[in-house]
């Protein structure tokens, strides 16, 4: 079972992704930009950062200036908030279990791939889901 503090960190990222979907942004563009951002590297791909347990709005205050060109409101498409939240949680869980930095992880396991995996994996334990993803993409766990 996922450790309490790691669960909370994953939930922070999950809430960020849910918020982005609620705001009507193109979630894929956000995700790709966020995971490749310097903020993600400094604040999430690290042992400790206050942002790992911070609220969405505080995090967005630091994310938006860096990736503002990738925050595009989608007028034609609504992205399911639950899917967005699961993807955010799963990317963080994958980082925690593998220590592959997010900017690299997003090139190995694309946003679309996680969308495709969602239907089959969102109802199972997150460790089992990440085991399947790691196996399918030959990612070593720490």
Strands, helices and their partners?
Layout: H1 4-22, H2 27-36, H3 38-43, H4 56-67, H5 81-98, H6 102-108, H7 111-121, H8 126-136
Helix pairs in contact: 1-4, 1-5, 5-7, 5-8
Estimate what percentage of residues fall within beta strands: under 5%
Care to count the β-strands? 0
Helix count? 8
Average of per-residue pLDDT values: 94
The first-to-last residue Cα distance is 16 Å
**Principal-axes shape call:** globular
Fraction of helical residues: 55-70%
Uncertain spans: none
Nearest-angstrom radius of gyration?
Answer: 14 Å
Biggest β-sheet strands, sense, barrel: none
Structural class: mainly alpha
Order of helices and strands: HHHHHHHH
Structure description:
The chain has 142 residues and is mainly α. The model has no long low-confidence stretch (mean pLDDT 94). 66% of the residues lie in helices and 0% in strands.
List its salient traits.
globular, mainly alpha, 142 residues
């Amino acid at each position: 079972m996922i450790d309490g503090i790691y669960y909370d960190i994953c939930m922070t990222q999950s809430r960020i992704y849910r918020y982005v979907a609620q705001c009507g942004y193109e979630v894929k563009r956000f995700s790709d930009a966020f995971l490749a951002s310097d903020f993600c590297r400094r604040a999430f791909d690290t042992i400790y950062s206050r942002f790992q347990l911070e609220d969405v709005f505080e995090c967005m205050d630091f994310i938006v200036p860096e990736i503002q060109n990738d925050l595009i409101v989608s007028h034609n498409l609504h992205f399911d908030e639950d899917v967005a939240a699961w993807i955010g949680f799963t990317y963080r869980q994958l980082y925690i279990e593998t220590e592959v930095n997010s900017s690299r992880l997003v090139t190995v396991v694309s946003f679309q791939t996680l969308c495709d995996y969602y239907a089959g994996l969102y109802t199972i334990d997150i460790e089992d889901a990440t085991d399947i993803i790691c196996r399918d993409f030959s990612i070593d766990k720490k």
